[in-house]
Design goal:
The structure is a homodimer of 343-residue chains. Chain A is α/β, with parallel strands linked by helices. Chain A folds into two domains: 166 residues, 3-Layer(aba) Sandwich (Rossmann fold), CATH 3.40.50; 97 residues, Leucine Dehydrogenase, chain A, domain 1 (Rossmann fold). Helices cover 44% and strands 15% of the residues of chain A. Chain A is built from twelve helices and 13 strands. In chain A, strand 11 and strand 12 form a beta hairpin. The longest helix of chain A has 23 residues. Chain A is globular and about 50 Å long. The interface between A and B is large, with 38 and 37 residues.
């Protein structure tokens, strides 16, 4: 299905569901199972944090909530995506979101715009979704083409529908102790959920976040350091980035490492403190003539080395990625409940 | 003058200026000079970063700008403070602000409310200043009494007059790379200015901020880590706080240390990396029967020990404190220029 236009993917899924989702998932599960077995067979290797199954659990409970909502008020949460251009990674991410919405019973809408479109065209699409009462969450698939003013466009997005949590008011409220954002950015939220569901102690621990992007590094730092009202995490957090001197020495201090640099295999085994918990946010395509599409995805962490040093590690794919999508669904469900006054 | 009600201080200053500012300043300068001489006489001791003289320089250039504005358009920047209750430290801070405004030729207004007043009364005072065209900057002196909802009150403050930079939209825009806040919180901005004016290299260096308050720790972290559009700082920053395990070990990694914990003498010499640059934000009153008011102010850093280990250190008082006030004036000048379209 990966070669089809997204609007067609959407139509096919919503009309006939001709591509049962079970197949690819079964295949992925098998790989993960093998890793887990290997891990279990050898005490010197890390526990594999299975983001896919954690995400499935969350999606199951969301699906139940959606059914309850539909039965009770005849409505379901709606998510809209604005996609500008045809970046291969963006297409893949949007495709995952379409499928996830379908799985849990959300309404999904997409506005696909050519890379040559104007900022006004993007803002118009956003305004339409802002007004659309059947849409409770909107996201602009980032990155936008270089000539766009990302800030200006995101300013148009209704705060109540900002399910990515990237609006500056959301980020400000995330950063300020004692305030609560309407939405927590999905990858950061997914990382914390993985730590919590894996019973990793966070309070007082040293955490290092590699990468200081607005969408992952910064919010992950903020969450680890403070958390939100009901979940206070209190880690001692450092951010490592491209300008950091001796990044491997700083990284080796981490009890909890979140790698979000976007550099394949940046973090080697020698960068890790023995027993560290490693969350690998990187999703980097590398050429692989043997794979179906000529490439495969690897993380920012050299997985084969990390499993021998860390106490727990997320795989790529199947780690943080599925959790990001699950958190997006969760944020959209929250947005819908809020908008529809459904408890 | 410290025992007088603030409104009276203001009236006295604005009418007759009966208390020449030169006296206390001369006294403080003398102390600082002694420290500097001591530093110069012994190469093993740290350079003292003289925040008072850096602040004086900034205030001089602000005063020149104010004169230019007055001559050109017949207007001057106006700052308003809302003070609830009678906390001793708040009174002292507000007094400093009144005097600083007077020095540079700003209009100053204060709304003094009793601790027993309602949130609505505070919001009304804020709304009045929001509408007052002669006021370009407003600040609510924090902390507010415990029963107040600080967030709710600060939400009323006009973003264009938020010269403290504490509005969540300002903090969000400070946090997000590629965006710019209207105002940078004063103490954080003052710390960076002190580093820059002392020719301290920041890029790639390890910085530790002790304390994660909304008003100092968090914005200082954000500025050190990223900076703003024209000033990119790129330090590798860690935040240490009350839950941090082994804070002394982490602090000892810092090339640049910003101590903002509010704990007198928390940071001992053994916590410092030899040659570190130390900015002490703490202003802690401790009992001192020999001093005029029965107490004196000390920092979060044990100064006597720090001067033997650090390469540079700010004194308390006379370090970061005066810079905070200077930055408040600078923010207010910016706000006035923006509001009056004066360049």
């Amino acid at each position: 299905m990966s070669g089809l236009p997204l609007s067609l993917v959407l139509t096919l899924i919503q009309s006939k569901n001709p591509f049962p989702m079970i197949e690819p998932k079964k295949k992925q599960r098998k790989v993960l199972l093998l890793v887990n077995l290997f891990s279990a067979a050898n005490n010197d290797t890390a526990r594999i944090i299975d983001g896919r199954s954690a995400a499935e659990e969350i999606k199951s409970s969301i699906a139940i909530e959606v059914s309850r909502m539909k039965e009770s008020i005849g409505k379901v949460p709606g998510l809209a995506v604005i996609l500008v251009g045809q970046r291969r990674d963006s297409l893949a991410y949007v495709r995952n979101k379409i499928m996830a919405c379908h799985e849990v019973g959300f309404r999904f809408s997409i506005a696909e715009l050519p890379e040559s479109c104007t900022e006004d065209a993007v803002c118009d699409a956003l305004s339409n979704y802002n007004k659309d009462a059947s849409i409770h969450g909107i996201l602009v698939q980032l990155p936008l083409p270089q000539h766009f003013d990302e800030g200006k466009i995101l300013n148009v997005l209704s705060l109540e529908k900002d399910v990515d949590g990237f609006h500056p008011l959301n980020i400000g409220n995330l950063a300020i102790q004692g305030r609560e954002p309407l939405f927590i950015p999905c990858t950061a939220k997914g990382c914390i959920e993985l730590l919590l569901s894996s019973d990793v102690e966070i309070v007082g621990k040293r955490a290092v976040v590699i990468g200081r992007s607005n969408i992952v590094g910064l919010p992950t730092f903020l969450l680890l350091q403070c958390g939100q009202c009901l979940q206070r995490h209190h880690a001692t957090v450092s951010i490592v980035h491209a300008y950091s001197e001796n990044p491997e020495i700083i990284t080796r201090e981490a009890d909890i490492l979140v790698a979000a640099a976007g550099v394949p295999n940046l973090v080697r085994g020698s960068w890790l403190k023995p027993g560290a918990v490693v969350l690998d946010v990187g999703i980097n395509p590398i050429e692989d003539p043997e794979s179906e599409h000529g490439y495969r995805l690897i993380g920012d962490v050299c997985f084969e080395e990390a499993v021998r040093i860390a106490s727990a590690v997320t795989p790529v794919p199947g780690g943080v990625g599925p959790m990001t999508v699950a958190m997006l669904l969760l944020n959209t469900l929250e947005a819908a409940k809020r908008a529809l006054c459904f408890t």
